[in-house]
Amino acid sequence: MSAVLSIEGLVSGYGRSRVLHGVDLEVRAGEVVCVMGRNGVGKTTLLRTVMGILPATAGRIDWDGRDIGGWKPYRIHRAGLAWVPQDEAVYPGLTVAEHLTLAGGDGRALGRAFDLFPALEERIEQAAHTLSGGERKMLSIAQALVSEPRMLLLDEPTEGVAPSVVQMLIPALARVAHSCSLLLVEQNVDTALALGGRAYVLEKGAVIEEGDIRVLHDEGILHQRLGL
Amino acid sequence: MSGSLTDLFSVVALMGVFVLIALGLHFTFGMLNLVNLVHGEFLLIGAYTAYSIERATGNVVLGMALAPVVAGAVALPMERGLLRFLYERPLDSLLATFGLAVIIRQTVQLAYSAVPRSVSDPLRGSFQVLGVNVPRWRLVIVVAVLLLILGMWLLLNRTPFGLRARATVRNPTLAATMGIDIGWMRAWMFVMGSAIAGLAGSLLAPINTLDPQFGLLFLVNSFLVVILGGQGSLAGLVVAGMVLGGSLSLLQFVIPTVFAQIVVLVIAVLGVRVRPLLVARRAA
Q1: What is the pTM of this model?
Q2: Which of A186, A200, B37, B76 has the CA that lies 20 to 30 A from B223?
Q3: Which of the residue ranges A78-87, A103-112, A171-180, B50-59 would you say has the lowest mean pLDDT?
Q4: B177 contacts A53? CB cut-off 8 A
Q5: Cα–Cα distances in Å, from A74 out to A144, A196, B44, B193?
């Protein structure tokens, strides 16, 4: 199957500080791809560059055969990519309903989001700042999903979330993977293994390992590269 | 009795004027955080639009209806051509809007000269309310302020545009990744704020002398209202406009206007210092 997202020689960073030094990566339709690596290797920078929040200084990002490098984030979102950031993923003053309306969800999409996260339906009129950390994480995933993206970019979805919520999030994400591709950044090996698929390991802004995540795990490569 | 009721109405009218001149700034400075020194010139554009249309057609109400359109039409290329690059650069935006304000003032002076002009009062005379003479046009201004506040509240809190505007202001990066074109959202907010300022200028024209410095009369007070009310808070703006307008009006009964304006400035400064403490106490 051909790649729906193809990244070649991507160079990016913050101002004059380079973080990514020529990343090559691809995601095929319906695939789960996990980007792993220690803190500060450029995982979040990679997602932010794909979403158009950071400019790529070199390289190419192809989405569905079109070079989306230089596109504005709203255009990338409308092309079918949705982003779930690690922090500040919701608006504290807006209600759950307002978040989902803002994300452009119609009745069918809202139904699917509530089917995935029933707790949100019970809190539909509550402001986001009154939700628990886990519920805010669910809301950020739900608001990305109601636009019916073809690919979901998730930045450490289980980071800072209570273990009980993680146990609920993983099967939910596995269900999401049936309807769209997932490109997730994750440090938690158990979460990544639970979702399966392929993995890329980043070090100093470049890919140093790539392959089936279970193979990388079984051969001890993940533990060696991530310093576990 | 009737004397104090007349005084009371003049206090209310000045409260209305203070709120009116700041409503447009709620969008451009309060929400977009743009240090918008050209705000007063949109009041000027609105006032001169009313004047020009009245001169051309004899219909001042038509001029007032067109004032926000003209102000908005001037604002759009200004935002797209220059200001959109300056939202995260307060010093640059201050300098740029100061320069634009000078250009607009000088252009108006070239076109109309510095000779004071006047705009007709569409509703000359006054009503009798409880034995008090209430100037009709000042009552219209108070009613217009109430309608504008209601309209702005509904727009910001009950429409998809308002929801996107609030999202854009609070977290532009997140809004952009949710499919919102934040560039155009900011542009429409700037246009809306400028159009409201244009309307305000046209409504104030019949009760003020018109010259190219007209906008400067209101600029400082409109900033005081938005700063005291808390940037981004429409309710705060209304309260601050009432406090400052009411204070100025009451003080003018006992001290000269210049000193009254100084006291109002002190009230605003104290209010800005005290407000965070009150907010913190309420939160606790």
Answers
A1: 0.90
A2: B76
A3: A103-112
A4: yes
A5: 13, 30, 36, 24
Say if the Cβ atoms of A102 and B167 lie within 8 Å: yes
What's the pLDDT tens digit per position in A10-63? 999 998 899 999 999 999 999 999 999 988 899 999 999 999 999 999 999 999
Give the bridge partners for A62, in sequence order.
A6, A67
For B181, the closest chain A residue by CA position comes to A74
Nearest to residue A113, comparing CAs of A99, A128, A130, A127?
A: A99
Which two three-digit tokens encode residue B105?
């003032």
Residue whose pair of structure tokens reads 């290797």 in the numeric block: A41
A53 at the B interface (CB within 8 A)?
Answer: yes
A47 touches chain B (CB under 8 A): no
């450490």: which residue's tokens?
Answer: A156
Q: Give contacts of B174 with chain A, Cβ < 8 Å.
A: 85, 88-89, 91
Residue with tokens 């790529």: A56
Kindly write down the DSSP assignment for every residue of A42-96, as one continuous string: SHHHHHHHHTTSS-EEEEEEEETTEE-TT--HHHHHHTTEEEE-SSS-S-TTSBH
Amino acid at B186: R
